[in-house]
Amino acid sequence: MRRHVISIVCVLAMSSRASAQQPYNLSSPVGNLATLFSDLFGPNGLIVDSEATLPGEQPHSAHFNSDFQANFGKFSTALVSQFVTVPLPSPASGFTYHLDPGTGVFQRTTQSFGPILSERAETIGARRVSFGFATQRFTFDTVEGLDLNKVPAVFTHDNAQLLGGRQDVVTTVNAIQATVSQFTTFVTIGVTDRFDVSVAVPVVSNSLKVVSNATIQRLGTTNPLTHFFRQSNGDIGNTRLFTAVGGASGLGDVTVRLKTSVNPGRAVGAAVGVDVRLPTGDQMNLLGTGATGVQPFAVLSSTYQRVSPHLNASYQWNGSSILAGNPSTGESANFPDQAIYSAGADVSANSHLTLAFDVLGRYLINAERLSSEDFHALDGKSVFRNISFSQKSFNALSGALGVKINLFDRLLLDANLLFALDDHGVRDKVTPLIGFEYSF
Questions:
Q1: pLDDT beyond 80 at 67
Q2: 418 near 398, Cβ under 8 Å?
Q3: Phi and psi at residue 124, to the nearest 5°
Q4: What's the pTM?
């Protein structure tokens, strides 16, 4: 037992050292991923070239501003909130035991190997240890049902209410590529027959790329030199591409779980516990939330022949973080609280195979939401697609299908597909998971 625990601690330590590398940038102008969107056009908004002059022969610097430039950093908040709160593989062991006091021998308490992204009430058993590793890859496709490759945003001229040439706008179509790979090492130790302690250590590698295709819409000017984009060959034009690319890798937010069963031996098992998320990930590079999270939970589960249904419910309180405020200015705010729930069943197909099914939901309270709208220009006739932000509560629902295969002894191979059942929030249509777990 002592040798096993020492081995696990060494693996976790090596994982932490390997993940402690400095975040790297693939595009030199990008300092931190948390400010990638707001940095894309600079602190003064999108600056359009101009050879026109103001009264008194003052040079004219055309600044165009937008909710995109000013507020689209909130997409970073929505993004990091998504991938640091995705369901982690359950740290509960696929093999659960209790000590028979009559024989002094550990006996298995369940036939199935349990769920993958949910919990069951059974604990691992006194002096038992489970160790596991899982990898998930998220390729985000939509935000509130809007294709991330076609996000519209309209930039208006500063002091546009003065009309004239200031009625010109710049329309943009923005392609956002966001991918996150998460590698999680977890260990569970049975302190007693009814009490487990688990630790999940994620290593995160992410990348963001934004390509903005900007077009000057001449609604108040006719002279092409009033507002234009300088081309690479020196010519003037109405269009330009803006690009920002960045990536980072490192330790994510570590989660510690305490879990205890409250009615062992009953037909319907129950357990309660708490997850504590520690802000160990670099928030400015979207590796973690930058805020402590506390999530008490309750579990009900039972077994009817080969089928083992389960219900999970929890509530997550989140602390203050720059990511939830304004990363550009350093202003902090609280991440939205969440009510998290799941229902499903695992089915023991045979002694070496368990099938797992789950429906998982998250209700985010007063969270940032993006919506698509029509922008009506000051000329009274031009209409362009645009986006806006607001704070609303919403529910995000996902489904999961997976298998656990007993390869040999107490080694399990886990495979799972997590898929979106709605388009609320920032979503990945299908997220694969591959992992293994071993109990001793």
A1: no
A2: yes
A3: -75, -30
A4: 0.83
